[in-house]
Amino acid sequence: MRIAIAAMMHETNTFTTQLTPLEDFRPVEGEAVYSSDYWMKEMPIGGIVQVLRKEGVEILPIYFAGALPSGVVTSSAYQVIKEKIVSGIKAEAANLDGVCLALHGSMFVQDVTDPEGDLLSALRQQLPADLPIACALDMHGNITEAMVTNANILVGYRTAPHIDVVQTGARAAELLLLSLREQRPFITRRAYVPLLISGEQSETDERPMNELLPLLDEMEKTPGLVSASLFAGFPWADSPHCGVNVVVVGDKDRAAALDQQAKWLADRVWEQRDNFNFTTESWPLPEAIEQALADPGQPIIISDAGDNPTAGAAQDLAIVVKALVERGVKDALVVGVVDPACVEQCFAAGEGELVHLNLGRSAYREDADPYPLEAEVVTRRALDSNRFAVVTKDGVMVVIAARRFGVTDPCLLGELGLKPEDFKIIVVKSGYISPEYQRLAARKMFALTEGDTNLVLTELKYEQVPRPIYPLDEM
Ligand SMILES: [Zn+2]
Known about the structure:
The protein is of the alpha/beta class and 475 residues long. It has two domains: 2-275, no CATH class; 282-454, no CATH class. It is built from 13 helices and 18 strands. The strands form three sheets. A nine-stranded mixed beta sheet has the order 10-18-11-17-12-16-15-14-13. Helix 2 (44-54) packs across helix 6 and helix 7 (209-219) runs antiparallel to helix 8 (255-271). The protein is globular. The N and C termini lie far apart (50 Å). The relative contact order is 0.12. Zinc ion binds next to loops.
């Protein structure tokens, strides 16, 4: 048996103005994927490869492109990725038994609103009609009709924060092998729920997700239904494909029963529409700071949720730094603001020297002035192909980075010579707070800040999302 594998993974935030070029995808071709820890240990491709190898299947690795969440993908980047994947698989089509892909599900290209659907329909057109295509997808995929029609198997992560990424790849590969070995052609069906929810309202250990997800296991006991997934969707995209989807996979001759099953869970999700509350206590920024100061514990971890790079925000807003300095907070740390020019300035100065910085943006507007900050340089370090400077101003320490990075691993603080326990408040540019940061927290909260990932979805300027949709519209 011979199966082609490929990946195209990007969560696109259409509210951020920076475009995402091909370089950001760090593409890997052919067998080079096997020596990439990123693809083999962190991504669904790792699980796909494990299963196919274990089952003695010959693997044909094609092309693998994945980028950090960021702005709209350039048309030229997408055309390269599509061409590499489609032509690579087409060239071997006669010698293939199946295709197994890792896609995100919420990519958005300058001139293509549904690139995953576009890629899958291009593959479907180029491949024999009975060659099965399986995909592993992120739980935050905005699933479309073109994806469902053109793939035989779609499987989503079941955890957020995502800790089953590799396992989901394995599951997609297992279902593909099941279909081939038992000669059971599968189809995918979906039921749409007109609901916009953020990841911070749908962590899977919290209600109502922890009540809805076990229903997937129940559904999978139905004869003829081999997989059920609940896609929460991605709300920071002004996309005609936004919303929640229930996706089921099963035998081709059972379409009506599969539709009924998907609709049943979609109705359960809809009934819960008012229960997707923030999974962590949430406050406007000034109140979050006051709550933290009044609390005897430390450190209090506050998420600057409007400027979350792991959901594609630019990570360059200095709004929280300004608020902490103006409030006169002592022993606060902000991790971290992106400003390459400020990092250069700190590297040029010595440690202990005073620098006059113009940091990031002082408000959530493209033309907003930077925040003027006269601060002392504490540390400068080059780490993980990024450059970091730590500066301090009247008891407020700020980590400044040359490039965006996910604020998920507190080990960074140690590498910068900082001890979490020394701080009363640690602000992380994050949405939901990573398990590692949660472990440090005496208390945790979301600050409902402005930005590309504003958690107050009704404040975002949507023009293209399907209407009506809850909670933008009364339904
Ligand atoms: Zn996700």
